[in-house]
Specification:
mainly alpha; two-stranded antiparallel ribbon; 15 helices; about 70% helix
């Protein structure tokens, strides 16, 4: 099936083109985009690329950079798709029990895939890390799904705020032995203490596990924020147009950004702790990006530019897992480009290397897309 037929089929099924495009945009940065920006900054020295390169790294502790948004944006988008997925399953006559079992299976598969990405099969006690990015997505999505399946929209909103407030109170008021209450340092915060106490194996850092136990609470709210966006986009009554929906998303994003900044004055924006202010601040950017992508690709139907991202977004979990030591895309790149690389001036070699890696990854994903091979969890 060619791209035009695929796009037509997607439109007829009601699938959001913007959702796949934005997911692909999100995944691009961890499938070579980060290195491409670094190469552009290195080769050109231009201030724009230098600034962009400064945004391609996680903030060490408090604060926020573009790279800190990649993970919460992906979880947010998983939430956006939830109302569509559950509505489709119910329309096919699936029972509540079957939907529960699907959600449980999805969570378990993601947790296991996350451990595999963390090289748990090496059985190395120094690198036996059970918590993972995919595990966080699986658990947070599952808990959000349980809320969505058992609560109406008003209670979903109550759960969203309740989880953020409870987490904030726990982090600020519950004392850590030897540290006291409200210590939000790497070694003194409650989330890190609980992970050191209860998590088996090793952690990401000496004191903290970014995908740990307690910080999963606010991550559920990240998924729920996406659910609210999904509810809005599915809304077909009240005379609300596609443009109106997009503007609401963008406006809600601005409000969420401001709320995150305000909350951050006493509970700092911090990805490692997944603070309540981080949920709102990252969620604000997520809402605005979704609003823009939805307006351009689903309302105005200007889509050709986004096809590059859709190819990545349709197999985002696939490429995330495969590029972690399963398929060596760098070796494939070198097979085709080593001669050109060696003959090129040293100043542009980083650009050739990074662009070649992205090209190999994208062509692999395009092959899967072309033959409709998708890893569905």
């Amino acid at each position: 099936m060619n791209a035009e037929k695929t796009n037509s089929a997607r439109a007829e099924s009601g699938r959001l083109y913007s959702l796949d495009a934005l997911r692909g945009f999100d995944m691009l940065w961890i499938t070579g985009g980060q290195k491409l920006v670094w190469a552009l900054a290195t080769v050109t020295g231009w201030p724009l690329f230098t600034w962009m390169n400064s945004q391609m790294h996680h903030v060490e502790w408090n604060g926020f950079a573009f790279y800190d948004m990649i993970f919460p944006l992906f979880l947010f988008l998983a939430g956006v798709s939830m109302p569509y997925s559950f509505a489709a399953r119910k329309s096919r006559g699936e029972t509540r029990k079957k939907i529960y079992l699907h959600a449980m299976k999805r969570m378990l598969v993601l947790v296991v895939l996350g451990m595999l990405v963390n090289r748990i099969l090496e059985l190395n006690p120094d690198n036996l890390r059970f918590a993972s990015v995919l595990g966080r997505i699986g658990v947070a999505w599952f808990l959000a799904a349980m809320i969505v399946l058992n609560a109406d929209i008003r209670w979903q909103v109550a759960w969203f705020w309740g989880l953020l407030i409870v987490y904030c109170l726990l982090m600020l008021l519950v004392p850590v032995p030897g540290q006291g209450a409200g210590m939000l340092t790497p070694e003194g915060n409650l989330a890190g203490y609980i992970d050191r106490l209860l998590l088996p194996g090793t952690m990401y850092t000496e004191f903290n596990e970014p995908e740990g136990i307690l910080s999963t609470i606010p991550a559920v709210s990240t998924a729920l924020l996406g659910v609210f966006a999904g509810h809005l986009l599915r809304l077909e009554r009240g005379g609300l147009t596609g443009t109106g929906k997009a503007l609401i998303l963008i406006g809600a994003g601005i409000v969420s950004l401001l709320a995150g900044l305000l909350w951050g004055t006493f509970f700092p924006i911090n990805k490692s702790l997944w603070t309540s202010s981080f949920v709102l601040y990252a969620g604000g950017w997520s809402l605005m990006l979704l609003g823009v992508f939805y307006l351009v690709t689903d309302v105005w139907r200007v889509r050709k530019w986004a096809f590059f991202f859709v190819v990545i977004g349709m197999n985002s979990i696939t490429i995330y897992v495969l590029q972690h030591r399963i398929l060596r895309f760098d070796i494939i790149r070198d097979f085709f480009l080593k001669g050109i690389y060696d003959l090129s001036p040293a100043v542009i070699q980083p650009f050739i290397s990074s662009l070649g890696y992205i090209a190999v990854v994208w062509l692999f994903l395009w092959f899967l897309y072309r033959y409709k091979i998708f890893l569905k969890v």
